[in-house]
């Protein structure tokens, strides 16, 4: 009897084990790419989530800031997550073949003019404005074809629903129609983070797109719109709302011709809102409504997230000599201004703001100009132990639910800028949990 070759047996067993491991990893991992990554807000939120052995894995990321030579956001991203599979180049110059196959595409893209100049003959391609980053997302989806991701999770400012001013809703209609042409159904929701217990009043639109043959697509296709929005959709599960009745929904149908939308959408009633704070789109038809949040859990306020005062550098405190300048910026005022084009003089008025900021409420929205010692209307100022001061970078990170010192390594002003550009990580975490449950 021939003695078995133990080496071959072990080798085959090891190969089989590796195959099984690869299968487990494949079934348990949602491969994700993060576009316009900033300092990694989407990544932090998604990597915090695990559900029944499923998890998200960032297989590629891109961050490029065209207006600066030093790439601060990308540098912070790489310092926290490493350089592997990270691209710090203009996304429009990246060949789609260089982007790994993925299940989920995430990103916070700028609110721009998404209008279309023309369609490309004999293809589904389009010619959008150069430098408009929505069309880079579209390019990836279109060129990936059958390997395009099953899911998209995108974030933007809520004015996207109303832009441009003279043709309200046109830009969002272009996004919805282009996703429909690529085979996606869509849910969207404008979410104010503080409505769900988070520490900042930051209102943003989140867009979830899902392809046919996914569980989430079936939920949208098999249920009435009011059921999806009220109960069964991704946003309904993650962020409950008070019941919206059917007669409160607006219905509309989109052209599949993006040039036609560009030229004609909402031309008859340009000041009327076509899209409201919540909605779905499938097969070119959409239903949209206003809503009220429903939340009874713990609420985090600004005062809970402050650093120990003994750790605050003196540069963040406001001198008595500067205090009146801050009070002026925060107060009500009327200022005469001149239109540079027409020379017409007019009175610019603004109301007063709370000063100092209330510690018993969620913080106001962080803006990119939060950093620096110069008096400003929009920077946060708090009063602790009878002293006025600005917020520190760590406190700004906490308001976005980032780890402490995530942005360490750049100047304090730049750290504030990066947090002004970031999102509230807790929202992504809850949505990520919903996606895992649906996958």
TrEMBL record:
Superkingdom assignment: Bacteria
Listed GO MF terms: DNA (cytosine-5-)-methyltransferase activity
Entry keyword S-adenosyl-L-methionine: yes
PROSITE patterns to which the protein is assigned, alphabetical: C5_MTASE_1, SAM_MT_C5
Keywords tagged on the record: Methyltransferase, Restriction system, S-adenosyl-L-methionine, Transferase
One Pfam family recorded for the sequence: DNA_methylase
GO biological process: DNA restriction-modification system; methylation
Catalyzed reactions per annotation: a 2'-deoxycytidine in DNA + S-adenosyl-L-methionine = a 5-methyl-2'-deoxycytidine in DNA + S-adenosyl-L-homocysteine + H(+)
Family matches, as NCBIfam families: dcm (TIGR00675)
Official protein name in the record: Cytosine-specific methyltransferase
Organism encoding this protein: Halarcobacter ebronensis
């Amino acid at each position: 009897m021939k003695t078995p070759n133990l080496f071959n047996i072990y080798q085959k067993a090891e190969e089989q084990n590796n195959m099984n491991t690869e299968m487990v990893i494949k079934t348990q991992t949602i491969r994700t790419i993060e576009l316009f990554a900033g300092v990694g807000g989407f990544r932090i939120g998604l990597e915090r989530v695990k559900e029944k052995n499923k998890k998200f894995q960032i297989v590629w990321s891109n961050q490029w800031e065209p207006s600066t030579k030093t790439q601060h956001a990308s540098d912070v991203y790489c310092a926290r997550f490493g350089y592997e599979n990270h691209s710090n180049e203009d996304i429009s110059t990246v060949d789609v073949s260089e982007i790994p196959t993925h299940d989920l595409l995430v990103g916070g893209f700028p609110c721009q003019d998404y209008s279309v100049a023309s369609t490309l003959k004999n293809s589904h391609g389009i010619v959008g404005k150069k430098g408009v980053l929505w069309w880079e997302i579209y390019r990836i989806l279109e060129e990936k074809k059958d390997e395009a991701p099953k899911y998209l999770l995108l974030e933007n400012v809520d004015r996207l629903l109303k832009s441009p001013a003279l043709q309200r809703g046109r830009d969002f209609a272009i996004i919805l129609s282009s996703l429909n042409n690529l085979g996606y159904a869509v849910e969207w929701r404008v979410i104010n983070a503080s409505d769900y217990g988070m520490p900042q009043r930051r209102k943003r639109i989140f867009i979830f797109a899902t392809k046919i043959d996914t569980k989430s697509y079936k939920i949208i296709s098999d249920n009435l719109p009011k059921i999806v929005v009220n109960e069964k959709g991704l946003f309904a599960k993650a962020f409950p709302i008070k019941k919206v009745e059917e007669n409160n929904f607006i219905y509309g149908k989109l052209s599949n011709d993006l040039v036609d939308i560009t030229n004609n959408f909402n031309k008859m009633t340009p000041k009327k809102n076509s899209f409201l704070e919540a909605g779905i789109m499938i097969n070119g038809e959409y239903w949209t409504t206003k809503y009220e949040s429903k939340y009874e859990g713990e609420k985090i306020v600004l005062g809970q997230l402050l650093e120990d005062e003994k750790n605050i550098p003196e540069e963040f405190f406001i001198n008595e000599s500067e205090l009146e300048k801050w009070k002026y910026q925060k107060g009500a005022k009327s200022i005469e201004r001149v239109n540079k084009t027409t020379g017409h003089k007019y009175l610019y008025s603004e109301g007063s703001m709370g000063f100092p900021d209330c510690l018993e409420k969620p913080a106001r929205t962080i803006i990119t100009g939060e950093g620096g010692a110069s008096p400003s209307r929009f920077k946060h100022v708090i009063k602790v132990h009878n002293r006025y001061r600005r917020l520190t970078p760590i406190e700004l990170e906490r308001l976005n639910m980032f780890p402490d010192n995530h942005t360490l390594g750049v100047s304090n002003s730049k750290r504030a800028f990066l947090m002004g550009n970031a999102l509230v990580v807790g929202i992504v975490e809850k949505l990520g949990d919903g996606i895992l449950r649906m996958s």
